[in-house]
Each structure stands twice: as structure tokens, then as C-alpha cells.
Amino acid sequence: MSVLPDPIAPGADPAVWWPPAALDPTWIRAHADAASLLHIHFGTESFPPGHLTACLEAAHAVGWPVVYTLHDLEHPQLTDDSGYLAQLDELVTGADAVTTLTVGAARAVRERWGQHATVIPHPSVLPRSAAIEPALGAGRVVGVHLKDLRPSVDGPGTVRALEAALTALRDAGHDVRGEVRLHHRVRDADAAAEVRALCAASAVLDLVEHERLADDELFAALASLDACVLPYRHGTHSGWLELCWDLGVPVAAPRIGFFAEQHADDTVASFAPGDAAELAQALAGLWVAPSARPASAARDALVDERRALRTVTDAAIAERHAELYLHLLESRTA
Prior knowledge:
alpha/beta, 10 strands, globular
């Protein structure tokens, strides 16, 4: 069983995202003999209403079963996701099988659409070959990556809560500072200006503005943290959380969506969005484990342990997908 590469749209730069060329009825009919099944994950938001239904109908007409993996119940990249929610109606009800990442999301699929969703967890994000070389500072460092301030990110609100939480932790005797990272190019200039002002006025926050980090730079930046705070105002699942877990970095996640279900261990803690007292409590709890310290023997051992575990779980995830595909293909020919 093999996966076809994502076709490059005519005239597109392979390094730049484009709507999936395979999600087109004409493309599906033209490549009917090249594939046996269509699996949809991301990239649907730019298509007009009805387009995905036409794709599903074309796939079924050429004999392809369709699998849809629901990652997001709310779209993190859109200010108005009403069109995306309508697409979910098309995909969840039209696909031959639906998968998702957590039990909570599967429950939401059942409650909203009356459909069954198979739970298959998120695979690893950190490449096996990645070299991790974190720096170790004297005190603890809590980081938050706001990136380009996409609509799901509450930049000012997260920074305010982090500033208050770290101030309280300093008052309680912790040697800690915050590192706020922000891309030079952002989607919300007003929010970026507010973040800059909040950091400039703070005694506990350092602002770092930069271009989008290369993978090795991102791994090093995250691995040097004692904890990472997720800055989301809404969301369902987080690939960023998965990367932090691979790197052994403790995560404080807002109590929204199903972040807390992705890894039920003591390196992921929840807090009410904007609640500085809960955030401070979450961070203090995460630091209890010796592995919370970057560049420590305990952190290194944890990363090695998780890499070994991911080898096993990634293989199991691939096998579960293969079993699902084969079941659908056999059902088509029965």
C-alpha cells in the first residue's frame, strides 16, 4: 500500500501552500486508475459550497471510498468559519469513514452529525533524525509562540495572563521569565502592537520577533523551555502540543477543545483561558517533574523514552489506517 504525492498545482511554488489539486472532480476522474481511495485531511477552506460534495460523488463514481479525518471542529485560520462548518456537514455525512484524534472529538461528531468517528491518535511530529541542542539558562523560561497571530490565537490576552502568572510566581520565590515570540509579518497588526506594548512594560517578559523559524531552529527554541503555553482562544486539537510532547517540553494548554485528551500525563496541564492564577498553578505543577528542566539528564531520558514509544505507536497508527483502507476497499468489491 502506498500514498501518492500531493500533486503540484500548475504554476505553483512547491514551497508555498495551495489548495489540494487532488480535491477536484475533474482530477479525480482523470486519475481514476492511479489510486484506489481518497483520504482528506486539511486544505478545504478555500473551496466554494458544494465543491466537496462534487468531489465525493466523483470519487464514489470511479470506485474510490473516501476517508475524512476531522482535525478541527472550528477552523484555526479563519475569522468567519461558517463556510468551513458547512463543509464539515458535506464531509462528515458524505465520507465512507470518519476518523478523529480524541474520544471527545468523536463524541462531538456523534452528537452533531449522528455519525461514528474512529479514534486514531496523532502521530509523532519530531523527525527521528532531528538533532536537539537546547540551551540551559540560570532560571526557568516559559515560552509562548504567537507566530503570525492567526485568528485562533489570542495574543494580547495570553500575554496579559502570562505576565500576571509569572509575576505571581516570582513573588512566590520562583526564578522565572517569559519569552514571547512573534513573527515579523502578522495577520493582526493591532494585536501585535498591543503585544509589543505589554512586553515593553513588563519586568518578566522578553519579546523576540523573527521570521518563520526553520525546523531545526524551532526544535532548539522549544527544547530550551521549561514550559510552553498554548495561546489559543479556540481550537480542537494541537499539532504544536504534539511537537512539545516529542521534545519533552511541558505544556500549559487552555481548557478548550480536546487538548487535554491528546496526552493524559503530568506534562500537560490545563487552565481556563485568561485565568492568570490557574496558569500560575499549572506551571508550578509542571515543574515538579525533574524532566521539566531543559538540557538535563532527566529531559534527555524522557525524550529518548518518547522517541522509542512513538516508534511503536506510529507503526500502530499506520496499521490502523491500513486496516481501515482495506476494509473499505473490500466492502466496495463485495
